[in-house]
Amino acid sequence: MSSDRDHKTSLGELALVFLKLGTIAFGGPAAHIAMMEDEVVRRRHWMTRDEFLDLLGAANLIPGPNSTELAIHVGHRQAGWAGLVVAGASFILPAALIVTAFAWAYVRYGSLPEVAGILYGVKPVIIVIVLQALWSLGKTAIKTKFLAAIGLACVALTWLGVHELLILAGAGLLVALVRTFAQRNDRRLLSISFAFLLQSTATATSTFGLLPLFLFFLKVGAILYGSGYVLLAFIRADLVERWHWLTESQLLDAIAVGQVTPGPVFTTATFIGYVLGGFQGAIVATLGIFLPAFCFVALSGPLVPRIRRSPAAGAFLDGVNVAALALMVVVTYQLGRASLVDIKTLLIGLISGFLLFGFRVNSAWLVLGGAIAGWIISRSG
């Protein structure tokens, strides 16, 4: 591995590549990662496939949006600390601007039948997309019967109202304990797990303000493992149920806009921030949810080889991933009840599921189709 590969990309070139990717990257994290691999490995030869996979593995070991963190890793590797900031910001910026524009239109014109009709058709498609993500992630995460049992227990605890952070940390800690004592190796993870558990003290005031908004999304960005769809569980638990800052309908609208637009699913926070606090709210929410990703990538790079060799660290992440899936199951059911409200929405959902599962149609086309169907139904009804 020659050293001339490192830090050889200009900041301008790095910015152009990730601005482009952030503008066209529809389809969720898996599609984002595939586009990055095509751009930085096949087309530009910035690194080998093995080096790219090492960075992807590093992104999977830390909380936050994996595809965004992969962009940050690539930027750091190619242009140092400045590249870390430029690549990450360039990948996030197009989506954040597009989502802000949608949020402005939503706040100003959200009551118009045309907008309501579009969202009426998009919401069932979102439920199907989340179900597909659940299915694919579940096949990877549920590796043993023990992990399956942990997942079922987490579903039950979620239904009983146990705080989602306790569920995530508790599952990770339990799986780590079982494997650690079984293998008699690497007990150092236990202190990390307990520290993670203590992070569940996120009991912000129920009074809305820019600082509580920033702290909420900072917390979510700092502890969220798994798919970006797990974000929905955190938002619903705090902003809808506990603090009543959002309605169920507004949450579904935020999810729909996050799917209609390219880039990280985490820009759902940008939409919510604007709805709650205007342009300042959008900026505060976006900074809060993405800031931990930059910090974790900067801190984790030198530690990655040691973490990946630790059986206990791997066990902890296995438990957290299964718990994250459990949260997704519950929130998908709850959102599904609010989206599939009649025969028409059920039919849109079934057709979308047939196209997604049967023919692997890109989710962006499904969302567009749902929007068109919703608009037509609203105009005819």
The general outline is globular
- Beta strand %: under 5%
Largest pleated sheet: none
Counted up, domains total 2
In the predicted model, the low-confidence regions spanning at least 5 consecutive residues are 1-6, 185-204
β-strand number: 0
**Helix run count:** 16
SSE class: mainly alpha
Q: Termini distance?
A: 64 Å
Radius of gyration: 20 Å
Nearest-integer average pLDDT: 82
Oligomer: single chain
Residues in helix, %: over 70%
Order of H and E elements:
HHHHHHHHHHHHHHHH
Question: Keyphrases for this structure?
Answer:
2 domains, 16 helices, 381 residues, mainly alpha, disordered N terminus
Secondary-structure map:
Layout: H1 11-24, H2 29-43, H3 49-60, H4 66-109, H5 113-141, H6 145-159, H7 164-183, H8 189-198, H9 210-223, H10 230-242, H11 248-260, H12 268-300, H13 304-308, H14 311-339, H15 343-359, H16 363-380
Model description:
This protein has helices spanning 11-24, 29-43, 49-60, 66-109, 113-141, 145-159, 164-183, 189-198, 210-223, 230-242, 248-260, 268-300, 304-308, 311-339, 343-359, 363-380. With 381 residues, it is mostly helical. 49% of the residues are buried.
